Amino acid sequence: MKKILIFLIFCIIPSFLLLGASNPEQVLKKLDSIEKTISDLSFRILALEKRIISLEEKFLLERSETEAQFKRIPDVFKQSDEDFSIVNVTYETHYNDTIFKGNIINKSNKDYKYALFKISVYDKKGAVLASNDFYILNMDRGTRRSFEATMG
Fold first, then answer.
1. Where do runs of H (alpha helix) occur along the chain?
2. What phi and psi values does residue 138 have, to the nearest 5 degrees?
3. What stretches of 70-129 show up as alpha helix (H) in DSSP?
4. What is the pLDDT of residues 91-149, one digit of tens each?
5. By the 8 A CB rule, do 125 and 104 touch?
6. Under 8 Å between Cβ of 99 and 109
7. Other beta carbons within 10 Å of 19
């Protein structure tokens, strides 16, 4: 209780002095202007959130339309032994998500600062059920890195 009282004394009293506490009318005017500013900022934040949500919905709609066009497994699906090798891939379900884990080996002659990979799951008819991108930083040649990709 003493700590709270000391906090109030050292924080609130100096703030009143800085606001011009010698004249209560000035303090009320300043508090009113601060309240109006905060209210204006909250309305701006709400407007920005609505714009972000509409942009996300538009982006997801465009993405789902483009994914619908590319729903088939490629005719030739082979992995080059000269670039990357993916080994020890396992998966497990966690609630509504599926987590894929494994190792990627850089067999190329290049060092990669940023390597982007895509994992896709297909059904028996060849349609894409789910897809996810993941990246690995600093993939030097000959290195073996573990990965984990979640699909939901």
1. 2-18, 24-69
2. 55, 65
3. none
4. 998 888 888 999 999 998 888 888 888 888 888 888 888 888 888 888 898 999 998 88
5. no
6. no
7. 17
For residues 136 and 147, the answer to whether their CB atoms sit within 8 Å is yes
Report phi then psi at 87, rounded to 5: -135, 165
Q: What type of residue sits at position 97?
A: D
Phi–psi pair at 27, nearest 5 degrees: -60, -45
Residues constituting the chain: 152
DSSP classification of residue 81: T
Q: The tokens of 15 are what?
A: 């703030």
Give the chain's count of helices (H) and strands (E): 2, 5
Do 141 and 115 contact (CB within 8 A), yes or no?
no
The 8-class DSSP code of residue 106 comes to E
Query: Tens of pLDDT along 25-45?
Result: 887 888 888 888 888 888 888
Give the whole-angstrom CA distance, residue 141 versus residue 105: 8
Cα 97 from Cα 151, distance rounded (Å): 5
Q: How far apart are CA 58 and CA 79, in angstroms?
A: 34
